[in-house]
């Protein structure tokens, strides 16, 4: 507190001597809860084609023929009467992780034979971009074997090509790079096989040259940039329900997602057929985006990694399958080994693998989730075993624990009470509710036990019925309700240590769940109004909460206003966030109680729309976006004229 007092004196703080009961009084001289620098983060789950077909920049679908239907995504190209043919071969006894490959046999050089890949709802190809093709091939039984590659647009016109000669009597990786001369949202790749004899092909791949940080086989640059612009404090991965799987056999197993990409074992994505009205039979997980890439992404964007691991329970909304308690040791060992993979020295087994993958330095893992949305006594029984083993070996690791899929009710109450009695580290609360619920819950944490576990608002989104149910995109009503609710999270930063919206990404033609924070197609992406709300919070983080009061009470709905305030001791700034959720203008004076002198002008960021059903779109990606306005203080008052349905962030030097 001595440091805080010195800081406040250095800023020239003193008490304001007067204010009106309806003024907003920010008590700058009364710093309270510490705000964690990583409070606002993001939650990634492979839903809505968020990984394959989205963040992972691979353009070829089913590149190693491992889908349940091995030729899904592929089409044979050949002349009528041609004797050329292909056959999918399974070598599971030799390679269980990548058992299938395609064998093409051509008897006559005059026989044109090819394979066409449709991509993920097509392939997004940009004019002037370089594309990197690679394939594993065995041409030992062929003569003059070569590949002729074509990118074709929606009209079948060639927009890029290359050729590749194949030789050798064993499996070998081949690669070639070529440019595109046109843009197409739904291009396809033709792989023509020329020569005679038999040719084996596997891992047929196409990536843009320009990926995030120009990493070969990397991530889609525009999508990562949207995340980087958020400046998130953490990234939770890989889910979500895919951690659980519908059955345990299809749970997420991190060890199968690291090492050489061609050795990672593909599995079905649990969102493949979860919803009959949004069935996605071609949705699988190739794990080209695996745990190493998740850790690397977190490091790239300055976020702490928060991995979530299966606790021996499949999704309770599906099979509700559990592993027997006496057989849970391998699940716990996976958790211990993950900590070694992230933090261990290069002399350790898993630390060495991390180094071999190109990252000798530790990833500085500090927290880990045990299960996703589990509930009931069976979860408590398994949590205890995980907690005991992890804390014994790695006592500094903080554990994030489920309190079920709902923010209230019997399931929530049982886990909330039980885990508190067990002195759990962090409780993960989820809420997908109406905008009205979010407004009503803005004071949810005001009365929480200050000495109990920390709260992680791990998944939240306001679901409104104002948008077209066939599209269900995010509108301004939902975003504004979230902005108001988040003032309550920030005000209670001594209890709520982390928060993240969910889900993060959605492909415009491949989504299962809506609303979502960021929407994309094969060429473009945009942030929703909810995205900009999140960005205003993540980009305006204080270090200590200070009271923001009206009529000597916290502002959590009075006069349709919601507010929070903080100071940043590092930049010597005061940050005030205010939401006006009403349909009328509001004019309020803000009293910075304790500031001796106000700036001559204050730059204010405003996010507003008079249409609560307003949305952003591919045609109007910035229909609702932040704007800068200027406020001129009068004496010790800051007059703020708030538009209907608006959110403001004031940030000023002290």
Automatic annotation (TrEMBL):
Pfam hit, one: Alpha-L-AF_C
EC nos: 3.2.1.55
Stretches assigned to the Alpha-L-arabinofuranosidase C-terminal domain: 458-646
Keyword Hydrolase: yes
Catalyzed reactions: Hydrolysis of terminal non-reducing alpha-L-arabinofuranoside residues in alpha-L-arabinosides
Signal peptide as annotated in the record: 1-21
PANTHER family hit by this protein: ALPHA-L-ARABINOFURANOSIDASE 1
Family: Belongs to the glycosyl hydrolase 51 family.
Protein name: non-reducing end alpha-L-arabinofuranosidase
Source species of the chain: Danxiaibacter flavus
């Amino acid at each position: 507190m001595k440091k805080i007092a010195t800081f406040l004196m250095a800023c020239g703080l003193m008490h304001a001597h007067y204010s009106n009961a309806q003024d907003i009084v920010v008590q700058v001289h009364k710093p309270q809860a510490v705000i964690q620098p990583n409070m606002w983060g993001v939650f990634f789950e492979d839903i809505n084609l968020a990984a394959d077909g989205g963040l992972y920049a691979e353009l070829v679908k089913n590149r190693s023929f491992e889908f349940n239907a091995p030729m899904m995504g592929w089409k044979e190209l050949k002349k009528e009467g041609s004797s050329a043919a292909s056959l999918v071969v399974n070598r599971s006894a030799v390679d269980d992780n990548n058992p299938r490959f395609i064998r093409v046999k051509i008897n006559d050089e005059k026989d044109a034979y090819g394979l066409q890949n449709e991509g993920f709802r097509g392939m997004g190809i940009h004019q002037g971009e370089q594309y990197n093709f690679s394939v594993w091939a065995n041409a030992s039984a062929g003569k003059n074997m070569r590949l002729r590659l074509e990118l074709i647009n929606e009209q079948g016109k060639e927009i890029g090509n290359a050729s590749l000669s194949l030789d050798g009597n064993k499996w070998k990786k081949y690669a070639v790079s070529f440019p595109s001369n046109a843009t197409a949202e739904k291009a396809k790749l033709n792989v023509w096989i020329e020569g005679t004899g038999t040719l084996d092909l596997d891992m047929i791949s196409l990536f843009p040259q320009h990926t995030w940080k120009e990493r070969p086989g990397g991530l889609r640059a525009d999508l990562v940039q949207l995340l980087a612009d958020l400046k998130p404090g953490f990234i939770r991965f890989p889910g979500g329900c895919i951690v659980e799987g519908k059955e345990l056999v299809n749970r997420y197993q991190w060890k199968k997602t690291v090492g050489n990409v061609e050795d990672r074992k593909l599995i079905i994505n649990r969102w493949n057929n979860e919803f009959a009205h949004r069935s996605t039979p071609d949705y699988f997980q190739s794990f080209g985006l695996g745990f190493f890439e998740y850790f690397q992404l977190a490091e790239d964007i300055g976020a702490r990694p928060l991995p979530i691991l299966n606790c021996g329970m499949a999704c309770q909304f599906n099979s509700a399958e559990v592993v027997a308690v006496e057989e849970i040791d391998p699940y716990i060992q996976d958790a211990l080994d993950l900590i070694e993979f992230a933090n261990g020295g290069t002399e350790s087994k898993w630390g060495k693998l991390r180094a071999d993958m190109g990252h000798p330095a530790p990833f500085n893992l500090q927290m880990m989730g045990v299960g996703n949305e589990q509930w009931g006594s069976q979860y408590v029984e398994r949590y205890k075993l995980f907690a005991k083993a992890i804390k014994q070996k790695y006592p500094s690791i903080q554990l994030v624990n489920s309190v079920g899929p709902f923010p209230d009710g019997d399931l929530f109450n049982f886990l909330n009470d039980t885990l508190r009695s067990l002195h759990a580290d962090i409780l993960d609360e989820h809420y997908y509710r109406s905008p009205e619920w979010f407004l009503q819950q803005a004071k949810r944490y005001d009365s929480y036990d200050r000495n109990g576990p920390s709260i992680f608002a791990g998944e939240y989104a306001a679901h409104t019925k104002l948008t077209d149910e066939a599209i269900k995109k995010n509108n301004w009503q939902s975003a504004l309700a979230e902005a108001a609710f988040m003032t309550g999270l920030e005000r209670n930063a001594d209890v709520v240590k982390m928060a993240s919206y969910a889900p993060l990404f959605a492909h415009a033609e491949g989504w299962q769940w809506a609303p979502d924070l960021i929407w994309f197609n094969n060429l473009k992406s945009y942030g929703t109004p909810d995205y900009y709300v999140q960005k205003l919070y993540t980009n305006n983080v204080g270090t200590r909460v200070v009271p923001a009061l009206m009529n000597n009470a916290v502002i959590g709905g009075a006069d349709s206003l919601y507010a929070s305030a903080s100071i940043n001791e590092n930049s010597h700034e005061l940050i005030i966030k205010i939401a006006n959720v009403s349909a009328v203008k509001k004019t309020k004076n803000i009293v910075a109680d304790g500031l001796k002198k106000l700036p001559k002008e204050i730059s204010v960021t405003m996010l507003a729309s008079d249409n609560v059903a307003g949305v952003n779109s591919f045609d109007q990606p910035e229909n609702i976006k932040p704007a800068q306005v200027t406020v001129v203080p009068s004496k010790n008052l800051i007059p703020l004229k708030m538009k209907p349905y608006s959110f403001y962030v004031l940030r000023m030097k002290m």
